[in-house]
Amino acid sequence: MVIIMLGAPGAGKGTQAERICAEYSLPHISTGDIFRANIKGNTELGKEAKSYMDRGELVPDELTVRILKDRVSQDDCAKGYVLDGFPRTIPQAEALDEMLKSSGIAADHAIDVEVPDENIIRRMGGRRSCPSCGRIYHIEYAKPAKEGICDNCGTALVIRDDDRDETVRNRLSVYHEQTQPLIEYYKKSGILEEVDGTQSPDSVFEAVKKILG
Ligand code: AP5
Ligand code: MG
Q1: Do residues 109 and 191 touch, judged by C-beta distance below 8 A?
Q2: Less Cβ around it within 10 Å: N or C end of the chain?
Q3: Of all protein residues, whose CA lies closest to atom 2 belonging to ligand 1?
């Protein structure tokens, strides 16, 4: 099963992808997480990605597609995976289609988590995430049991570098310009499903489960 999570920055793609992966035992492939791990490890890829991410711009397609192909060719992806934050442009979607086609499969679901821009700004301000295992929290909507500490691995939670107000605004405008056209793309291919992302994380997940069956 190949599931694509679509939605604006902060819509809850990562939050829902985590839950889907736990429920259906699939690996969670987040290009953003891969880039952040490389930034943390101070790799060449990390240095290049950081220059775009800090400005809220997209990392170039060619580099992103290469990283994605490399990741999904690993053994744990043989039975499927959940894509969170990829594809983000039409060329990325075309590259994914081509890649899947060459393995004789097609994406099963593209789930668009819909949240208006006003809600996004509020959500991003309160996001905290675990730099070690990647689990996502919110100071109001998804609190850890102990303030500032990851429930899963005990690491101190951090604020993402690209969650500053002006960067969030740029990420939103980049989303509307470059990523939103994918909604039409997947509508045409017949696999688009929309869920109301303004509900609680539990209610959003119920809607997602109904789609996945
Ligand atoms: P990426 O890491 O993918 O960030 P993003 O798409 O901007 O999305 P976010 O991770 O910010 O939000 P999310 O939708 O996962 O929401 P979350 O669940 O955390 O990408 C970062 C950067 O990397 C990009 O800007 C780009 O530079 C680069 N990049 C990555 N992929 C790329 C690609 N394919 N091509 C080119 N460049 C790429 O939720 C947000 C907050 O809200 C959390 O605090 C959460 O707890 C809370 N929350 C979640 N759901 C709810 C709910 N239902 N109600 C209330 N609060 C909620
Ligand atoms: Mg995310």
Answers
A1: yes
A2: C
A3: 32
